[in-house]
Amino acid sequence: MTSAEKTGSESLSPAEIAQAMLLADRASAQLGMELVEIREGYCKMSMLVRDDMVNGLGICHGGLIFSLGDTAFAFACNSRNIRTVALNCTINFLNAANVGTKLTAEAVEKSLKGRTGLYDVAITNEEGLKIAEFRGTSYGTSAKTYVGIDQVVD
């Protein structure tokens, strides 16, 4: 049975869930985000800072760095095929990122108790310098994220 033929009673892998999410995530695609690695409770995403991503100070806009962290967080907390949304997210900006910098966001599940999860996301540049620290609290709903590879459950 292919992943497209799976039903809601069968489990999709984190990679299959991530692929379906990527197909539906136009915002992340527009920003050029790429999935690097995915497994249960973990995601690594990357994004190249383009010249149309800078703020008035000539550095990467903080909202776009937040978006990268938020996307890695979303993929990590939805990796078990439970539709999961953010309850709260915070970010601390530690260093600037310039045009041409490849940012990597690594989301790690720190706790999952019942429906609530806690995730830390480190956003670094190519040299490993920490650009930002993102923390997200998630809430798992009673719905599946995806029934089949191309079917979003409302």
Descriptive overview:
The structure is a single chain. The chain has helices at about 15-25, 25-30, 60-75; strands spanning about 35-40, 40-50, 80-95, 100-115, 115-125, 130-145, 145-150, 150. With about 150 residues, it is an alpha+beta fold. The chain is built from three helices and eight strands; from the N terminus they run ααββαββββββ. The protein has a single domain (about 10-150), classed as Roll (Thiol Ester Dehydrase, Chain A), CATH 3.10.129.10. It starts with 13 loop residues before the first helix and ends with a strand. Helix content is about 20%, strand content about 45%.
Q: List low-confidence stretches.
A: 1-9
Q: What is the typical, i.e. mean, pLDDT?
A: 90
The portion of residues assigned to helices is: 10-25%
Give the total of beta strands: 8
Q: What class would the helix/strand composition place it in?
A: alpha+beta
How many individual helices?
3
User: For this structure, what is the CATH class?
Assistant: Alpha Beta
Radius of gyration: 16 Å
Strand order of the largest sheet: 1-2-4-5-6-3
User: What's the overall geometry?
Assistant: globular
CATH architecture: Roll
* Strand portion: 35-45%
The SSE order reads HHEEHEEEEEE
CATH topology call: Thiol Ester Dehydrase, Chain A
> CATH homologous superfamily, by name?
Hotdog Thioesterase
Number of domains: 1
How many angstroms separate the termini? 24 Å
Reported for the largest beta sheet, the result is: 6 strands, antiparallel
